[in-house]
Amino acid sequence: MRKIGLLIIIVGMVGLAGTALAAGSSDYDNLYSRAKRASDNEHFESWGGEGPVKSYRVADSERYQRDQSPDWARDLWAQNANDSAEDEWADEWEDDDGVADEIPDPLMGLNWIFFQFNDKFFIYLWEPLAKGYGKVVPEVARQGVRNFFSNLTTPVRLVNCLLQGKWDDAGNEGARFLINTTAGVLGFGDPALEDYGPPKDEDFGQTLGYWGFNEGFFLTLPFLGPSSLRDGIGLYADGYLHPVSYIDGEPHRTTATKIAIRAYEKFNETSFQIGEYDRLKGMALDPYVAIRNIWFQNRQKKIAE
């Protein structure tokens, strides 16, 4: 990804300047004051004040179930009788002392602006386009594209399995790559699934965490979403393992072609997740705080596995 992080931040800040000025400071002040009071032992309750300015809700028929959630939220989602998952999350996050872990968020003001940008970008542009794409392109074709990119990124997963000493997982990744590249016709099929299971979800951010590096602090990256200082470094390192980086023989360069290919990979994936983000927000009293903490706890869970 090399220079893409800096490029994305610059583009995002320029695009957000007008929005931030128009929105004023009231929404952020409200968010900040509520989030600061959302301490661990309060279990993200109503914090003793009025409800948030924007409270997202969904119909009972659209209640978000664990098996419907995005990969980064799965197994961390809980429901309760009050139509909110937030006061349940802390129970799953508490350590042996009964204190829930939290990721530091010293850049909350900037992160909140980028969160708002990503939210509007996703809702009003990215997801509607992906929804139309899903209606035009048959699911079997989109699944083939999904399999192809999964197979293509095998080096990222394989190397990080090796770096963490997960020899069996590394062997599975190698076997999956050989079988799917040949019998699966360049990875568009997944004949290795039955014998070797799904691909392992490993990246360099998890490798750093495995070897004792903490997350540093929370980041919301324009277009890319939740991350941290450690995982941002991991994202940069994984860029050198991604085959797309080498299509021009210069992995250190970020080009429009590379960005387009990686964007299409994410776009195709979004076509399988239409409505998930809205349902996730619909269960949260404060979407920013909810997404931050769900993401953080999921990263901890993956590192521990």
The secondary-structure class comes to: mainly alpha
Task: Identify low-pLDDT runs.
Answer: 1-94
Described by the principal axes of the CA atoms, the overall outline is: globular
User: What is the radius of gyration computed over CA atoms, rounded to a whole number of angstroms?
Assistant: 20 Å
Strand numbers in spatial order across the main sheet: 1-2
Number of helices: 13
Largest sheet: 2 strands, antiparallel
State the order of secondary-structure elements, H for helix, E for strand. Answer: HHHHHHHHHEEHHHH
C-alpha end-to-end distance: 26 Å
How much is the average pLDDT?
76
Strand content: under 5%
Find the count of extended strands (DSSP E, 2+ residues). Answer: 2
Task: Write a structural description.
The protein has 305 residues and is an all-alpha fold. It is 56% helix and 3% strand. It has helices spanning 4-23, 26-36, 86-93, 108-136, 139-152, 154-163, 167-182, 193-196, 204-210, 229-239, 256-270, 276-282, 287-304, and strands at residues 218-221, 225-228. The longest helix has 29 residues, at 108-136. Residues 1-94 have low confidence and may be disordered.
Task: Give the helices and strands, then pairings.
Elements: H1 4-23, H2 26-36, H3 86-93, H4 108-136, H5 139-152, H6 154-163, H7 167-182, H8 193-196, H9 204-210, E1 218-221, E2 225-228, H10 229-239, H11 256-270, H12 276-282, H13 287-304
Antiparallel strand pairs: 1-2
